[in-house]
Structures are given as structure tokens and as C-alpha cells.
Design a protein that fits this description.
mainly beta, Tumour Suppressor Smad4, 2 domains, four-stranded antiparallel beta sheet, 4 helices
Length: 319
């Protein structure tokens, strides 16, 4: 599973780097505030760097703000182009009337170009090409003008994801609003390991389901009571755990369908959870992402007044 049930491996590594920037400050930020506000200043500096890197990633050529289309493939031929008679229609001048066809045979997809369709791969014109999906970690990317398109796999379904490097979402990105950075939201949690790992049922906004391994839960105190969040291990070799959660701000100050958060994999029975790094899922920015929803046990009545607020230029989904 990835942020939208499966991210390409290369992009996942880039995003992981973005989302762990400032991790070296976590211990200092979790310490009690000392005279002069050293812990708060360190946390503010780390979060400012983290936010800058996140925005740079989002607005890059491979960022979520470039998404311009998502088409699910049926078995057999799926014609693709600007003309309304195609099975997959994207009305843009960057695409030929019929650029070619995505031919699905079970779990395999082949692109067959139309003569003069203008589709290229690595700068060279395409005639016919077998396509690796993003499940491989390195999907085959085709191009037509400013468009980039490739095959994605979600819970056994195959689709074509389209990026537009000139997408208005990207060019008109407004930036985020945030809750104030606070060391009060850098919590020293207890990590309760599951042995063996639990299976957590994850559903995305399209209703697709997937079961993921949960190595354990983070348990912390706030407002006089304990709260717990199940973590998810996305890939066996990961160094981080993924947390999807909703809270009392969801649908109000923050995105209706919840927010995301990563923490380093705990080595013992404790974990630092920095809610200042809680961020909007891709679906808050673009309607063509397939984001997972927080499992029921990760929907807190607690108001987590930290991290990103709802994006004014995006979409909203309520739980």
C-alpha cells in the first residue's frame, strides 16, 4: 500500500526522504522546554525545513499536483485519445484524436500506438511496448507533449494514470495553512507490538480494499486519557511506519477524510510521534488520487491541532 494504495518505488523513496526531514530533531523537540525556548525553536526549524521539502516534492514533475486523469482498464483493447469515440477520453490539445490503445491481457498491459499519435518513451517514438505497472516500483512512462501516463495497480485493478506538467493545480498551487508548531504535539508514545503482526483492513475512497500488516500501535496520553493509533508497515524493508488517522478537526479545520503521518520504526517499546508533521493525503489536492481512509480504530474524537489544515484549493471528502 502507498499513500494512494501503492506509490511507485522511486517516488516512495523520494517522499520518504521528504517526510523524514528533521527526524534528527525529534528527540530534542520532545524534550521539556528550557529557558530561551530551545526545544520549540529546534522544532520550528525542523518543521519549516520539512514543509519546504514537502512543497518542493508536491510541485515537482512527479508531484501529486500534476495528476490529470485516471482510467481503469477493461480486458482487451482500450483506445486512448482526445476524440470522444475512444474508450479512454482526455480532452486536451496535447493528445492526438486517438493516440493508441492500452491492451490488457490479465495482469499484463501493452500499448499499441497509432501512426502519427505522437506518443514517445524516453524521447523515442513508440510503436508497441509492454508496460510495467507501478507495482514494479518503476513503471513504464509514456509521453505526449506535457502529458505523462503510466499503468497503476490498485487492489488487483489496473488503470492508466495521467500527469500534466502544465496542470493548473500545479501552476496555481496556493500553499498550505498550518496549525501553529508546538512541542506539546511531539509526544513520547508507548509502542505496543503485536505478535504476530495484526492485519488491518484498509479501504480507499473508491471502495477498494486491501489488508496490511500492522506491527503495533502507538499509545499516548492527552486530555487525561489514553489514545491509540494502529501503524502500518507498507513494505518489509521500510524504515518507517505509516499512520492514517482522523480526529476532531477532520471536516472542519483539516481535511475531512483524515491525515497521514510517518514515524521511524521503534527499536524498543517507545516511539516519538510528531503531529506537527501530520499532512494532507493526495486526495485533498487532486481528484485523481486513490487515497486510503483511516481504519475505524484510528478515528479519534481528540482534536489534533497540529500539522496541515485543509487545502483551500483542493477537494474534500468526509468520512
Amino acid at each position: 500500500m502507498r499513500q494512494d494504495l501503492r506509490r511507485p518505488g522511486r517516488l516512495r523513496r523520494a517522499l520518504a526522504l521528504v517526510l523524514t526531514l528533521g527526524a534528527q530533531f525529534a528527540t530534542a523537540a520532545a524534550a521539556p522546554v528550557v529557558p530561551g525556548g530551545t526545544a520549540l525553536a529546534s522544532e520550528q526549524a525542523a518543521i519549516a525545513q520539512w514543509r519546504s521539502a514537502r512543497v518542493a516534492s508536491l510541485t515537482s514533475d512527479n508531484g501529486w499536483l500534476t495528476l490529470a486523469g485516471l482510467y481503469w482498464l477493461k480486458e482487451g483493447e482500450n483506445t486512448f485519445g482526445r476524440a470522444p469515440g475512444n474508450a479512454l477520453v482526455l480532452d486536451t490539445a496535447a493528445l492526438a484524436g486517438t493516440a493508441g490503445s492500452f491492451v490488457r491481457s490479465g495482469s499484463q498491459v501493452r500499448f499499441v500506438a497509432r501512426p502519427g499519435g505522437g506518443v514517445t518513451h524516453d524521447g523515442a517514438p513508440v510503436t508497441a511496448l509492454e508496460l510495467a505497472s507501478d507495482a514494479s516500483g518503476d513503471p513504464t512512462v509514456l509521453a505526449s507533449g506535457a502529458l505523462r501516463f503510466f499503468v497503476i495497480e490498485r487492489a488487483g485493478n489496473l488503470g492508466v494514470r495521467v500527469r500534466d506538467l502544465k496542470n493548473p493545480h500545479r501552476l496555481g498551487f496556493r500553499g498550505f495553512e498550518y496549525f501553529p508548531v508546538s512541542t506539546d504535539w511531539v509526544v513520547n508514545a508507548r509502542f505496543e507490538r503485536y505478535g504476530p503482526a495484526h492485519h488491518v483492513r484498509i479501504v480507499n475512497i473508491l471502495g477498494m480494499e486491501l489488508e496490511m500488516d500492522s506491527p503495533g500501535a502507538v499509545v499516548f496520553e492527552r486530555d487525561g486519557r489514553e489514545w491509540r493509533l494502529d501503524t502500518v508497515l507498507e513494505d518489509p524493508g521500510d524504515s518507517e511506519l505509516f499512520i492514517m488517522f482522523a480526529d476532531g478537526t477532520s471536516g472542519h479545520e483539516s481535511y475531512g477524510a483524515g491525515r497521514f503521518l510517518y514515524i521511524p520504526i521503534p527499536q524498543g517499546d517507545s516511539a516519538v510521534v510528531d503531529f506537527n508533521k501530520a499532512y494532507n493525503p493526495p486526495c485533498a489536492l487532486n481528484e485523481f488520487a486513490t487515497c486510503p481512509l483511516p481504519p475505524w480504530q484510528n478515528r479519534l474524537s481528540l482534536r489534533v491541532t497540529a500539522g496541515e489544515k485543509n487545502y483551500a484549493g483542493g477537494t474534500d471528502h468526509h468520512l
